[in-house]
Amino acid sequence: MPKSPLLEFDWKCQAQAAKLIDQWTDAFVRQDPFVANLRTRMSTETGTRLTDWLDHFSLPFSVETESLLSQSGFQLRHEPGDPVWQHPDGLFPDVVLGGFPKQRLTIHVESVRDFLVAHRIATSIRGLPGSALRLACVSETESTEFWVIERHGDVGFKPSESSAMNLPAILQHEEAFLLRKRDFASDEDGFDHASALVAAAKDNLGQDRTCDLFFAAERSYWESRNKAARIQKSRQDALGLGWANHDHHTYRSSRKHFTRLIALLEQLGFQCRERFYGGAEAGWGAQVLEQPATGVVIFADVDLTAEEVSGDFAHEPLPHRDQLGTVGRMVQTARRSHLASWHASLGMPI
Q: What superkingdom does the record give (predicted)?
């Protein structure tokens, strides 16, 4: 019997994996005073946890470590290079096993340069300015190394100089997204404009870097209209972290334009994941999407009935309804299409 679309993604707590990562993190913190101090400052100054920022562990290979990973639900990613273990059912850092002389912990930041400036660290950065991946070692003990990494649509672990060759194009399309017009006479014109900007950027930079630039601009726009966001961003910037800990973006749409919204997201490389239904009283649901290379996750909200949430409402036009639901009223109150204020919120781990 085919599984219900609502049960296709059955997320469960991964206690064993969480315990393993917490043990490794705590052991690392005990060995590196810089990391211990950073974890304390993250908690007291930004209200975030060190685990919210983890990107990956790089550990010396051993059969014992492989066994621990396998027993905790991690799976080996079969690609060239050092073995990479990933957890398909939870938000955990990757684990790279190889010939590393020391244990290495790497956190994800928005800008390696900004992190070094914030902590007054003079060290070399691997990866040219504009590269899709840059990283630097910021602290070292006899047995550990602590690194920071920034990613722009690159899921690897080593920078590629070729990804920085298009720096003028990167700056050009970054500016185009930041200055994107958001008020149009019709929603159709707004969608056409956004789609054209995305298409032009993809031609020059590829899909993944385009997606990274697009959502950096969306966060900037959302932040400019949200005082709480600006306060939180300033706290995280003081530690050189930026918005690298974003968990998901939420967008709200009318029923009429929902499929067009999904089409634009798919143009950026998003893939539909699970769907969500708030219940009959709420009268709305959501399609969850994820872009694999950037890790950006979307909650796309729309007014739905219980029957509609089981169909392919992301791609099949929803019929017109005279009565507005919760999401429809929000959209009407804003008196803008999604192109003007579609970035309803930014979620972070709690």
A: Bacteria
Last residue of a domain, one of 123, 140, 163: 163
Q: What is the predicted pLDDT for the residue at 62?
A: 93
Residues 147 and 227 in one domain: no
Q: Would you place residue 349 in the very low, low, confident or very high pLDDT band (cuts 50, 70, 90)?
A: low
- Which residues, in sequence order, are CB contacts of 333 under 8 Å at separation 6+? none
Q: Residue 249 contacts by C-beta under 8 Å, 6 or more apart in sequence? A: 215, 218, 219, 296, 297, 298, 299, 343, 345, 346, 347
Residue 97 is part of which domain span? 13-163
Last residue of a domain, one of 163, 181, 210: 163
Cα(341)–Cα(204) distance, integer angstroms: 27
Per-residue pLDDT of 16-58, as tens digits, reads 999 999 999 999 999 999 999 999 999 999 999 999 999 999 9
Asked if 254 and 304 count as a contact pair (C-beta separation under 8 A), the reply is: no
Residue 31: the pLDDT is 97
49 domain-assigned: yes
Pairwise CA distance, residues 47 & 236, whole Å: 9
Distance between CA atoms of 334 and 326, rounded to whole angstroms?
13
Residue-wise pLDDT for 187-200, tens only, equals 899 999 999 999 99
Q: Residues 6 or more apart from 192 whose CB is under 8 A from it? A: none
Do 131 and 253 lie in one domain? The reply is: no
Flag whether 8 is in a domain: no
DSSP string of 48-98? --GGGGEEEEEEE--HHHHHHHHHTT-EEE--SSS-EEE-TTS---EEEEE
